[in-house]
């Protein structure tokens, strides 16, 4: 198979685009698409400072790489979830990435903000772990952006992530979730930073290929708590559709944005106020993060509280955190002729 | 496992309802739900004559049985597609069902209306077979209703059928298809009969169990031309969701009807006229059925035309029509304790 651009040997076939590329031309193709997405959706300009939320995985580090190489002013934000070895390894990847490029990286630990790391939050609440973790990340991202003077936070959500989220919301016909499914969430309050997803048109496989070809050292393992998550099953179902009919995921997501998103609205008009505890935005008196922090505080005995906050060494890892899963196939695939 | 109603031995577990029934109580449960659907959606009254489109399969014969036993005035309509042994066997099931109950059955052959049976139509057009066949069935159903003085046609579409159709339309965000996804399609023109789907809340497995428990002799094989159809893959994907989370299909379909259907509208307002050839409704000058008939006529040589119209014996069956597929599992399942 030949590269569509230069006629040289292709390393990656993109069935949904009915094309193939050599390594360098794929890197160019990928960057072009991401930067075009940033411009077309008016995500941010070169005058703005962008806070890039990085997890140490392929998507967010690929995003940071593209934005930095594209001439944007970027700062990384690593949120330390305190999930044992998984968090230690992913933090190290972010620090190495930033150090190699001389880019600033901010680190905020959930344990400091919440009083306990995610494993203890998991034990303290009946809320699904991914939900409590997502809430914490969104809260910390926004606060870090406000405190650091960043008007915009960019996250590494890719096409597969966005299509799976849309799939879940559509199965439930969750009007509020459908109304919010956008690659750009504008700042609707002075205390909200704009949130953007510049990779929403790039598939997980494409993002993995980019990170690999750019020699980015990223963490391949998935979060041990994500195992069995509904979103993973939804991704598998969408992958089956994509195998049979390449382009299905993009058609599903883009078709929604073009034809249906505008039809859905938040069930109740949202009036944002400031949390009486922390000053961040909320629809009630106390924000969801502060409520969760209270819940965690109540559930923990004093001795546990100290231990959880300092993130004990890996001898304390629960069985579910050992033997992390890997779902990475792309790195080997892209070398196939 | 015990019957929720009588405490006797259950033969069928309904995970999505978190319940189980013995045979007789399941039959009562099934009938109650279907007849309640007919009333709640105002599909038809006992004063109206209902034309029940029957294929010889479990769904349409179960529907006919429920409506007949429920005191409705029913006449069967069998559309002979001329698909070799498959059609011969399914027609025999419908005739036996009607004869046993002393109910009227009308038979219309596609070959007579179209000038060729479905296998020849398949060869004569580039349109997918299921699409040409669906068009022919809708056309014949409506004409038979009008000519016979039936205000309403009932079809055996079940929850799985409807959820799979909705799934396909949602993947494409096909606004017109989404706007038309309803269990009752009203007569929007004097030459259109109302179309209703009284089984849309009953799953395929439930319908199969009802037909089995009622001793209905139905055809288990699927149409040989349906193999590999996209709708079958969509059903498989929805079945995986249902296995993990019972009730998913019903939630998806009912959620759509409750919260989203009203948001979608036909892309262009439809103005119905009468076809200059046959007088049936169309949005153009000549209706899609007459156009397809012309196409079939042009494609066939004179000798073939005679042969196709009389539906040659099974020695002429193409390889794809031999070794019919069966997807029926429920009959054995329902005997599990």
Largest sheet of chain A: 6 strands, mixed
SSE ordering of chain A: EEHEHEHEHHHEHHEEHHHEEHHH
Percent strand of chain A equals 5-15%
Mean pLDDT across every amino acid position of chain A: 90
How many distinct helices of chain A? Answer: 14
* Spatial strand arrangement across the major sheet of chain A: 5-4-3-6-8-7
Structural class by secondary-structure content of chain A: alpha/beta
What count of structural domains of chain A?
A: 1
Oligomer: homodimer
- Helical coverage of chain A, percent range: 40-55%
Q: How would you explain this protein's 3D organization?
A:
The structure is a homodimer. Helices cover about 50% and strands about 10% of the residues of chain A. The first copy, chain A, has 14 helices and ten strands. The first copy, chain A, is of the alpha/beta class. The N and C termini of chain A lie close together (about 5 Å). In chain A, a hairpin with a 4-residue loop joins strand 1 and strand 2. Chain A has a single domain, classed as Rossmann fold. The longest helix of chain A is centred in the middle third of the chain and has 20 residues. At the A-B interface, helix 7, helix 10 and helix 11 of A face helix 7, helix 10 and helix 11 of B.
Provide key terms for this protein:
two-stranded antiparallel sheet, homodimer, Rossmann fold, globular, alpha/beta, 11% strand, 337 residues, six-stranded mixed sheet
């Amino acid at each position: 198979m030949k590269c569509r651009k230069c006629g040289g040997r292709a390393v990656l076939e993109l069935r949904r685009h009915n094309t193939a590329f050599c390594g360098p031309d794929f890197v160019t193709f990928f960057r072009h698409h991401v930067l075009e997405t940033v411009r077309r959706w008016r995500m941010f300009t070169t005058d703005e400072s962008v806070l890039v939320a990085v997890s140490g995985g392929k998507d967010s580090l690929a995003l940071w790489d593209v934005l930095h190489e594209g001439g944007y002013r970027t700062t990384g934000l690593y949120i330390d979830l305190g999930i044992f070895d998984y968090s230690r390894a992913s933090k190290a990847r972010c620090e190495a990435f930033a150090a190699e490029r001389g880019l600033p990286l901010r680190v905020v630990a959930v344990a400091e903000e919440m009083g306990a790391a995610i494993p203890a939050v998991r034990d303290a609440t009946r809320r699904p772990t991914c939900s409590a973790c997502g809430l914490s990340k969104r809260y910390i991202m926004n606060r870090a952006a406000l405190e650091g003077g960043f008007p915009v936070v960019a996250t590494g959500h890719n096409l597969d992530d966005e299509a799976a989220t849309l799939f879940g919301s559509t199965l439930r016909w969750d009007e509020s979730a459908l109304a919010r499914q956008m690659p750009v969430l504008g700042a609707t309050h002075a205390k909200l930073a704009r949130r953007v997803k510049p990779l929403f048109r790039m598939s997980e496989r494409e993002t993995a290929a980019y990170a690999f070809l750019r020699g980015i050292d990223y963490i391949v393992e998935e979060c041990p708590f994500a195992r069995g998550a509904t979103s993973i099953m939804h991704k598998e179902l969408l992958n089956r559709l994509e195998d049979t009919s390449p382009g299905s995921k993009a058609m599903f997501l883009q078709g929604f944005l073009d034809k249906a998103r505008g039809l859905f609205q938040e069930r109740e008009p949202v009036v944002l106020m400031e949390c009486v505890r922390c000053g961040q935005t909320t629809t009630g008196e106390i924000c969801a993060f502060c409520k969760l922090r209270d819940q965690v505080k109540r559930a923990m005995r004093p001795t546990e509280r100290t231990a959880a906050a300092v993130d004990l060494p890996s001898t304390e890892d629960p069985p579910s955190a050992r033997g992390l899963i890997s779902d990475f196939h792309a790195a080997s695939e892209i070398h196939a002729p």
